[in-house]
Specification:
Layout: H1 27-37, H2 43-50, H3 54-63, H4 68-78, H5 82-87, H6 108-120, H7 126-156
Helix pairs in contact: 2-3, 6-7
């Protein structure tokens, strides 16, 4: 019978032990990868990006683990591979659209905002860029709906 690890001696961030499971990434490992990908200079900025309080970041660092929910949020928000963020592994296969198995489509809002930044020479914080991306995405959606409705009216008569 295998000896079990005393739960009191286990790091607070560790989950149940699973045979063959990947090692849990440390806070410092994930933090260094974040800093290499996202323009974030300190843990206070990270807290702002995650919409949490700075002491939460400090607590996670002291416990040594990086909460998976935070990794999910960063991966989703900044289109980063979760596998890379947590374990430093690059994707071997082309990325696919979430859940569809189809090739991933690039986010047109990112292209539009990046091009506008180049043209104007402006610079934004990540928080500002995220806010602008949300606005651009909503405007693209609204404009696309308006265009499709106009095309539908043109093709089928006055239909909403």
């Amino acid at each position: 019978m295998a000896a079990k690890t005393d739960p009191a001696k286990r790091p607070a961030s560790s989950g149940p032990e699973v045979a063959g499971s990947a090692p849990e990434p440390t806070f410092d490992e994930v933090w260094e990868r974040i800093r290499g990908i996202i323009d974030v200079k300190n843990q206070s900025q990270l807290a702002d990006m995650l919409e949490i309080k700075t002491p939460s970041i400090t607590g996670a660092k002291q416990r040594g683990g990086f909460p998976l929910a935070w990794a999910y949020k960063l991966a989703w928000t900044y289109n980063i591979s979760l596998d890379f963020l947590l374990f430093g592994r690059e994707r071997e296969k082309p990325s696919t659209a979430r859940g569809s198995g189809a090739p991933a489509q690039s986010d047109p809002a990112i292209s539009i905002v990046d091009e506008a930044l180049k043209i104007t020479g402006a610079s934004l914080t990540k928080k500002q860029k995220t806010a602008i991306l949300e606005i651009v995405r909503e405007e693209l959606k609204t404009t696309t709906i308006q265009i499709l409705r106009a095309l539908k009216r043109e093709a089928y008569g006055n239909v909403n």
